[in-house]
Every structure is written in C-alpha cells, then in structure tokens.
Amino acid sequence: MKSITRHFSVQNGRKLLRYLEKKSAAISPLLIVTHDYPDPDAISTAYALHYICEKKFRIRSRIVYGGIIGRVENREMVSQLKIPIHKIHPSDIRKYDHAALIDTQPDFENNPYPRNRKVTIVIDQHPYVKKPLADFSIIDTDCGATSVILTQALLLSGLEIPRKLATALVYGILSDTLNLYRAKRTDIIETYLAILPLCDMRALIKIQHPPKSKKFFRTLNKGLNVAKAMRGLIISHLGVVEHPDLVSELADFLLTCKGMERSLCTGRYKGKLHVSLRSNRPTDDTPEILRNIFDDRKEAGGHDMVAGGAFHVTGQEKDENRWQEAESVLVQRLLKRLRMPKRADFYAPFWTGAS
Ligand SMILES: [Mn+2]
User: Fold this and answer.
1) Cβ neighbours around 353 below 10 Å, total
2) 2-208 is classed in which CATH architecture?
3) How far, CA to CA in Å, does 139 sit from each of 41, 190, 276, 327?
4) What is the pLDDT of residue 8?
C-alpha cells in the first residue's frame, strides 16, 4: 500500500471516507442507485459502498437499479455473492431523502433517479459535459473501473473484507478494464493486486462461465445470420430482444471476428432501440461517434472503445417500418461519420444459406 498512497485513487478513497464520516448521521438512510441494466462494475461499486456505509459509519442504505439485470454473468454474480440489490420501486424515491448515484451521473439518461431531485453523492468514471450537482462527487475518468475507487476506500477503511465483496470487486475491475487492458495507471493494478488474495476464485470462475439458455443461443444465431460487414465494420440488428444486455454482448462478440475494427449492434426492447458500438482502434473516441449519430447526444455514453445508448422509437410497438427506419438511419449516419461510402457494399459474413 505504501507505494500507492500518493496516487489519485487513494486520495479519492480517503476523501470518500472523510465525507461519510463527517456526514454519517445526516445522510442516513441512503439510497444507492446504479445505472440501468447494471454491469458488474456498477453492482460491485454499489455493494462496497453499502458495506462501508453500514459497517464503518452506521449509515443505513439500500441498493437499487433501473431496467433489469440481464446478462447471465451478472445474474450469476448477484446470486453467487448474495448481493443485496433490488429493482427500484417508486416508493424508494419518496422514502429516501439522500441518494448516491453510482457509475452514472444526475444528468445522464441511463439511471432511474428523477432529474429534478437533489443528489447527495456521485461516484463515477464517465466524462461529463456539466459538472454533476451533488453535495459530494468523485469523477475519476482514468480509474479504469468505478470499483477501483471503492476498493481503495475499502482497503483504507481498515474494515474486514468479506470474500464475497472482494470477489465482486475483482470481477467488477476485471470486466470494466477489459482484464486490466484499460488500467492505465499503476495504482489501478496495485489496487487490484491488493484485493485479489481475498477473492473466491471458484466463485469467480462460476460467475465468468455460467450456463447459458437455449434462448441465448437462438439470439446469437440470429445475430450472426443477419450480420453484415464492410471494410472492418460489422453490423447486426437483433430485432426484439429478451433484455438489452444481449445487444452489448453481441457487439463485443462480433468485434472479435478477424479483420473487424468496429461493431454496431442494435436491439428493440420496450419501445426503445438499444445500441452498442465497439471499436478496437485506439484512436477512436467511440462514445463521441455514437453521440454524433444519435438525435439526442445525451442518450449515448461510454468510455474509450465502448459505447452504448438507447432512444425511443415513436409509434406502435408492432410498427415494423418505424423500427427499420430507425435502424437504417443509424447505419447511414455511422457510415457518414466514419467517412465510408454511402453505397453500402455490405456482405453477410456468416450466412451459410438456408439448410
Ligand atoms: Mn457501468
């Protein structure tokens, strides 16, 4: 720990502990709110904050999220590690005067907290246009994963660290940093190494490789069949999906195809078109590319080579034309933004013909 005490994330962890100590009586009970369709980073960060609040400062708290926990790995994480996380209920907003937004910000569209309500704490890694309005905020855009900030705070707190919590944080850091690829500061690696010995490796491997349903494979099959590619760009429109996490999952997967540099994937879910854009070109500002092709910039976000967002498609749920129009407009704008020819000479790389 000695060598990392000068680093930024340690300062942040210390700042957070100091704030919680000072305000403990005033901010209890605290509603801990993650972004919609929470990922392992958001879930583990919220879990660590909940633990520190309760064990160190006697701040009562409840972790809530919007949307659903879709990805099988994330559901496995919550059940294996018994993480007390709940789908948000309208009464939560009424019952709690204080809220902590985790891995999201008050201005972002990707969380269920009302825009007009005061937020007490913000802990996030995503860049902002407008500094978040909150009593206390930590925005560290270079931390690799928001869970790094809370891991630091936890290590500094002197609290005993349960295996389940350590496992959640290890998974949160690994998944958000792309197995530490995005860990650009040495303190991130050192933080990870400090928590790693406490991780339950058996539980971790189970979380990383859960059994997947036939439905998942049917979606995968469809995604591959309808995929079209051109000049390193691969696109797949999944149509109606069981949950929006499938969209990001397929975007990740398609990018692993040899020769591909960027992937765009869409899926229709509850009146919204969910979109994921991935790139393996280090010079790409992927979130900015996605914002540029959305009508409303605020509906897209992300970091480095990972971007996602969703927007409402007006009209009837069954109005096929509207959906197709939304999907094709998105592709046309992307081609333009990437300065690729509009006359699309796409081919279907995985189509094997009807058999
Ligand atoms: Mn996240």
Assistant:
1) 5
2) Alpha-Beta Complex (3.90)
3) 15, 20, 23, 33
4) 62
42 C-alpha vs ligand 1 centroid, how far in Å? 5
Q: Give the Å distance between the CA of 271 and the centre of ligand 1.
A: 22
Strands in 119-124's sheet, in edge-to-edge order, are 85-87, 61-65, 30-34, 98-102, 119-124, 134-139
How high is the pLDDT of residue 58?
Answer: 97
**Within 13 A of 311's CA, how many CA atoms are on the CB side?**
19
For ligand 1, the distance from its centroid to the CA atom of residue 103, given in whole angstroms, is: 5
User: How far apart are the CA of 39 and the centre of ligand 1, in A?
Assistant: 5
Q: Which residue has the tokens 């650009």?
A: 184
Domain ranges of the chain: 2-208, 214-337
Q: Does domain 214-337 have CATH number 3.10.310.30?
A: yes
Whether 2-208 and 214-337 share one fold: the answer is no
Per-residue pLDDT reduced to its tens digit, 242-287: 999 999 999 999 999 999 999 999 999 999 999 999 999 989 999 9
Residue 293 CB-density burial (10 A; 0-12 exposed, 13-18 middle, 19+ buried): buried
Question: Dihedral sign, CA of 175, 179, 185, 188?
Answer: positive
Q: How far is the CA of 125 from the centre of ligand 1 (A)?
A: 9
Mean pLDDT, residues 321-338 taken together: 96
pTM for the model stands at 0.90
Average pLDDT over residues 161-188: 95
Please give the Cα distance from 277 to 286 (Å, whole number): 7
Mean pLDDT across 307-318: 85
pLDDT digit string, tens, across residues 67-90 = 999 999 999 999 999 999 999 999
Please report, rounded to a whole number, the percentage of residues in the chain having pLDDT higher than 70. Answer: 96
Distance CA 118, CA 121 (A): 10
